[in-house]
Amino acid sequence: MEMSQPATTGTNVANAKKVGQYVLLLFLTFLVLGPFLLGLWTSLMPTADISKGALWSSHISLDNYVAAITTTPILRYLLNSLVISTLTMLFQVLLCSMSAYAFVFLKFKYRKQLFMLFLMTMMLPFEAEVIPNFSTVRSLGLLNHYAAMVIPFLTAAFGTFMLRQAFMQMPVELKEAADVEGLSHWQFYWHLALPYTKVSLMTLAAYSFLSSWNQYLWPMLTTFSDSFRPVQDGLRQLQGQESFNNWGMIQASAAIVVIPTLIILFVGQHYFKAGLNEGAVK
Amino acid sequence: MTITLEQLSKTYEGSNQPVLKDVAVQINDGEFFVIVGPSGCGKSTLLRMIAGLTSISSGRLLINGKVANQMPPKDRNLSMVFQSYALFPFMTVAENVGFGLKSRQLSATEIEHRVDDALAMVSLSELRDRKPKELSGGQRQRVALARAIASEAKICLMDEPLSNLDAQLRAKMRVELKQLQRSLGLTVIYVTHDQVEAMTMADRVLVLNDKKVQQVDTPVNLYQHPQNAFVAQFFGTPQINLLKADVVGHDLIVDSVLRLPLIQMRLNDSKVLVGIRPADIQIKVGPQQANARVVTVSYLGDQSVITAVLNDSQRFRIVADSQLQVAADDLIRIVGVKEFDVFDMNSKELIASQRGDVNDATVAATEF
């Protein structure tokens, strides 16, 4: 191709490419968001219309939401989940950061080997631990209680692993300066290590909250009453085994259950920005 | 506060190669002591051993006469300034300076007093509520300095504290640091790779290379009486010329056309290294009886640095008056060498030195 060729040809090709890319992106967005939006939409429709398979109804209202809140224990489920997820999140952040600190800043024998052992528990799928965990929890007499859903998840190898990485990113001079200044491990942990790894801590907090919130299998096995049942299992409970299903109401409950997840993501985004630790070194 | 190092050695775990061997020196109270050497010579390791941040493999470290090998850093009563400053990013300037004091459980008024004093000393009082990221490199460096001052430790360790600053600021800070050290009566141990910093600031310098101490001396002695070729090469800009020479009778023959007569000494070796400072070489420009050819000329304002090559292709540098009219490929003649040192060819240790005057005909290079 000659240099004197008009530049517009190149621009047209580039434009066409861009249009193609956006069409693809829009299609994928629709693919991902479609079911979600459909669910949200049906939560506003009367069950009679949903059962007919209609996508349009003349009775768009929030009736389903009112029904969900007034006729089902959905609020109790929400409270249960909130308690369980908050406790799990707080303890995971606290305990994982402490164990990660030990793996990075304390020198002890077999540190590497111990960490490997830690990582190995991460490789084990949760389903494989269900039966031993269940018998442990039963022996402790914790079935059908918050404790059954909190205690097995107080700490997680993944959290330790993630925060260990974060602590290792800290400039070694900060620890050395702290040593020379005479800071104790607690002071360094609390005043320097935690603030320095704020972003990672927030990420872990969001992650542990959401994974706790979305638990289904474990609570299903360990809870038998509405007073302790978390939301995901509560939703399942709303679908009666044989009776008529009020799909509009179930859909509305599902929408309510998603709200905290969205809040966490939006709040979390605020923290995922760079530059928090600028100025420490250089 | 004196610090004594007795045969300190460091070998890292899982390695049989020591990174430092038998370092022995005494650092006196109120001394500005500089550890200098090329990168990777172990100077930072040595400083970290003194600070207690790196363990000592063998030998003894004494602080004020007490063995301190196992003492935790905070009990050594010293402060440290890092190359990267190591400021606490989410604390203000004042908090950064006072944080260590807080952890030592001093009273609030005492802390405030010390922080104010330290910040005033480095002229940062107005920026006390800023965060480190809102400061320039030089200001961050001052915060690190203020932190060291506020600790009131009598020993201050500095690990290349000026190397991240630009050249002008560095020159200014050198002077300020030196003044600060004097007025506070601090014992400073200062690590640098920069020979100019070492020369301008130090009371005494420890030259480290190849894991070993090369020489411990005052800047003047290091320049004038280097104990080996490394030290001779390390100090002085442009670098000293190290030329291979044969010993024949009473002469050092560098090149068929450059002979240096030996007057006060006898040499047993047949081959040696001659060290000649670039400023000690006197030349004449012109093809007449020329014995070297100019390769490059660097104009530096008040002087020029000329690189020339001898007949046998050994290169050497000359510092000449910038008025001297000379260009690349000109032929020049070495007419005199003021003084020179002779080093052993293998061990690079100093064998002898000759001092004299260029006007002294016997010292001047013989003309051919």
UniProtKB/TrEMBL annotation, chain A:
User: Which residues are listed as membrane-spanning?
Assistant: 21-41, 82-106, 113-134, 146-167, 188-210, 247-267
- Highest taxon above the source species: Bacteria
Task: Kindly state which keywords UniProt assigns to this record, in alphabetical order.
Answer: Cell membrane, Membrane, Transmembrane, Transmembrane helix, Transport
| Localization of this protein | Cell membrane
One Gene Ontology term of the biological-process aspect is: transmembrane transport
GO cellular component labels: plasma membrane
> Which Pfam families does this entry report, sorted A to Z?
BPD_transp_1 (PF00528)
Q: Which InterPro entries match?
A: MetI-like (IPR000515), MetI-like_sf (IPR035906)
Note the topology in the membrane.
Answer: Multi-pass membrane protein
Q: Where is the ABC transmembrane type-1 domain?
A: 78-268
Keyword DNA-binding annotated: no
Q: Does the keyword Cell membrane apply?
A: yes
Report the family membership.
Belongs to the binding-protein-dependent transport system permease family.
Note the PANTHER family from the entry. Answer: ABC TRANSPORTER PERMEASE PROTEIN MG189-RELATED-RELATED (PTHR43744), SN-GLYCEROL-3-PHOSPHATE TRANSPORT SYSTEM PERMEASE PROTEIN UGPE (PTHR43744:SF8)
Task: Tell me the protein's name.
Answer: Glycerol-3-phosphate ABC transporter permease protein
Q: Which organism is it from?
A: Secundilactobacillus silagincola
Lineage, broadest ranks: Bacteria, Bacillati, Bacillota, Bacilli, Lactobacillales
From TrEMBL, chain B:
A single Pfam family, by name? ABC_tran
User: Could you give a GO molecular-function term held by this entry?
Assistant: ATP binding
* Origin superkingdom: Bacteria
Keywords, ordered alphabetically? ATP-binding, Cell membrane, Membrane, Nucleotide-binding, Translocase, Transport
Q: Where is the ABC transporter domain?
A: 3-235
**UniProt KW Transcription keyword:** no
Claim: Transcription is one of the keywords in the record? no
One Gene Ontology cellular component: ATP-binding cassette (ABC) transporter complex, substrate-binding subunit-containing
The cross-references to InterPro entries, in alphabetical order and at most eight, read: AAA+_ATPase (IPR003593), ABC_transporter-like_ATP-bd (IPR003439), ABC_transporter-like_CS (IPR017871), ABC_transpr_MalK/UgpC-like (IPR047641), Mo/tungstate-bd_C_term_dom (IPR008995), NA-bd_OB-fold (IPR012340), P-loop_NTPase (IPR027417), Transp-assoc_OB_typ2 (IPR013611)
**What is the protein's name according to its record?**
Glycerol-3-phosphate ABC transporter ATP-binding protein
What organism is recorded for this protein?
A: Secundilactobacillus silagincola
